[in-house]
Amino acid sequence: MVRTLLAGLLTAVPASALAQLDARAILRAQQRGEQTNLYGNNPYETQDEEGAEQPQDTTKKKKRIRKPLESYFFSDSVRALNNFKWHIDPDYNRVEIEPLDTTLMDFRIDYPFYREGVGDMAQGALGQTSMPLDYFRRPQFFDFSFASPYYAYIYDMRSVPFYNTKRPLIRMGYIESGQKRYREENFNIMLAQNVSPSTGFNVDYKARGTRGLYAWSRTKNHNLSVAFSHTGKRYSVHAAYYNNHIEQQENGGVVGIWAIADTTFQHPSGVPMKLADAEARNIYRNNAFFLTQSYGIPLQRMTESDFSMAGLSAVYIGHSFQYSSWSKVYTDRRADYVNDRDHRDEEGNFVSATGSYYDDWFINPAQSRDSLYERVISNRVFVQAQPWDRNGVVGTIDAGVGLDLHAYSQFAMDDYLTGKYRRVKKTSYFAYGSVGGKIKKYVDWDANLRFYPSGYRGGDLEIGAHLALTGFIRRHPLILEGRFSMNRRTPSYWQENLFSNHYRWSAPLDKENETRFEVRFAVPDFAFEAGLQQGVVGSKVYYGSDSRIAQHDGTVSLTSVYARKDFRFGGFHLDNRVLLQWSTNQEVVPVPLLGAYLSYYYEFWVVRDVLRLQIGLDGRYHTRYRAPSYNPALSAFYNQREVEVGNYPYVDAFAMAKWKRMRIFLKYQHVNRGLFGNGEYFSVANYPLNPGMFKIGISWGFYD
Length: 704
Prior knowledge:
The chain is mainly beta. It has a single domain (76-278, 308-703), classed as TonB-dependent receptor, beta-barrel domain (Maltoporin, Chain A, Beta Barrel). It has 6 helices and 39 strands. The chain has a 22-stranded antiparallel barrel. Strands 4-3-7 form a 3-stranded antiparallel sheet, with no helix packed on it. Strand 37 (682-684) and strand 38 (687-688) form a beta hairpin. It is globular and about 90 Å long. The two termini are 55 Å apart.
């Protein structure tokens, strides 16, 4: 009877009152030192009328509790994202977070080297070589320097992506242009899936290239990465295999600028090129694998309220391994070209002349087959101390040691007789460290050091420091940032040793010395950014006007001023990026005085929350200067001094739409051809950019 009355009273009590009674009971139990379950009773456990636990019903399937993403790598705001990606730092126990872009933003920009800053000087078509106009963005410390002109396409340890997705995600994209015979094609597919909030894998594949508008300019660029990650509460591991395969036919550029500026051909394939009859070709192959793992040891007792180790004192011990092999094979055959307008005679008439792209043929006077190989095996062991809080004033202190094993092979004269390749092996030892931290959301700072005490790069030194100050006006952040770096580095093996059919050298070079300063001010909410960079480089190694390696015996000073401001008036967007640069020695480091990228478009909803549309123009421009040219046998940009290029605006017209998960664009590239400009559409000397071309592209994301 008593039990019946109690049951009736409890059913009459509101749920909120019961919750208060439960909370008070839990609090009293905690005060008595008893264990409590803050997450409610286990539905698979029952009690009898006396309170004794009864055995579970083994016929029922236990529900697996899904653990949350508890990694110290990710903040609460990052965890809240449905999907995000990151890249791993090979030296330190850190990651760099990036959101997944599914907006209209830069989808229309299909050439990857045009996405940053004011863009690159480009050889011409999709899949071909490029180099940033901004000197301070040019790739440095590239192990296999012959692949650096393809930096915007290839995967390496720092650029392999990892993903965290709430649901399985597949994204496919395809862009094509031109007639089938000369078509440019850009295909990519990404598959990402998490088997748990902390564990996932992904596959990224990109195939980009052109069948060649100009003679002998076919290019294939295939890039694959397969990655796995586990970012648990204490243990994390990142592993990936990546492959880069590049094939490029080489035409050596036009026989003269007149072939583009002063002559009209029925089709670009008729433009005379210097190597069009030489069957020149480069093939690059890269296979690589890396594994980075770390284990965290908390120095404080962890409780259920500690969501991750980010807020505790801790020590992390880690190891990083990388294997990477690159090969390059260059082939051609001897063939002269004819320049119909080589020079003028005394009466002002054009005189033709016959020329050869290469002056020397050291091994075979009729044809070339230069083969180069490089392999790097790298091991790093590191320790990261977290004294108080990962986001504290002193957040992390890092230290590590590393060993790099280098192997180089190339064809030499003795090998021509024996048929065997000789391999040169070198070893580099280094130690490195860093310290960094934050003061709430207002100050972010770090400093780092790397030193090679002995071995192949003995005496090399890298020092860096960074400070960012953030203030707020009406909740809008204002960021003032400063960077400093100083590097003393040994020139690459190939800069000191090369033997090929057209070029050969073997001489030690002095170490390069470079010091850089950077100051940047940004107001992200108002799409404004401005920066100043200053660099002084001594003993600069470069490829001279004859394409041979050279070293400047003095110093060169470089200064750049960069500004970006995006204006918005209703649906109208006026996006502006401008770069000013000065070099004290244009023969050693040539840069244009002005480079600019302007994008003006109108964006609006066609159907609210369903279909959004952009219509506008993209324009790129740089002032006239003696831009570098590209040498196929060396796979390098060299500082030619014969011709100037520039003062030509290159304009694209586009229309983009986003319909639910699908993005579509239509674009006419180089819409101003023949309308305005000086007719010399070059950004790399002797290599014309693509003429007018219509493009269509689509990207579609699939979930589950």
